[in-house]
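example protein:
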Amino acid sequence: MAAEPTVLVTGFEPFGGDDLNPSALVARELSGRRIAGATVAARILPVELDGLEAALDAALGSLPAPPRAVVALGLAASEAVIRLERVALNVADFSIPDNAGALARNRPLEPGGPDGRLSRLPLVAILGALLARGIPARLSETAGLYLCNAAMYRLLGRLPAGLPCGFVHLPPLPAQVARRIARSGGRVSGRDPGLASMPLDLQAEAIALVLETTLAGGGAAA
């Protein structure tokens, strides 16, 4: 009997002193849900550069069969909308240490590998579907230089060229922003981009739509 089709969704554990990461919560929220004929398998990755490769191999190896698509999620702390990443770069250059205390500086992710790898998700179709649903979203030129970028780059290098794969950044949760305001004693500027947030249920709806559009064959990436 053939294994049931799956789609892999990864999130990251909390980092930077926080105890929440919406990417992990969204992945868990969608775990086991059937979308476009496939069941979502959620895996949570460590925020550790030196442990990332093994974690990705374990996540992919734990599936009953090769996934129909892979969508990796991460937190963008000052982002206000769902952010669809176009490119992962072959470099790690951290502004803060990872959870193992490593502070990578201009470190190639794959010596001799391509400078960048393009998303294989149907980004234009996804963007249109999100906006039509009333969910704010935008395209982004780069996944940054932290663990999110590293996960996207390494996943794209591991998976067959025809398999849809890419990365989506999520905004903070309202509770995370509330804590930030509380730590400041309420003394924050109304123009501070770090005040942006999005509720968990809306984030989960957005990623379910990302998966639905991807699995439905929403067209080429952009």
Remarks:
- The first helix runs from residue 22 to 30.
- The mean pLDDT is 94.
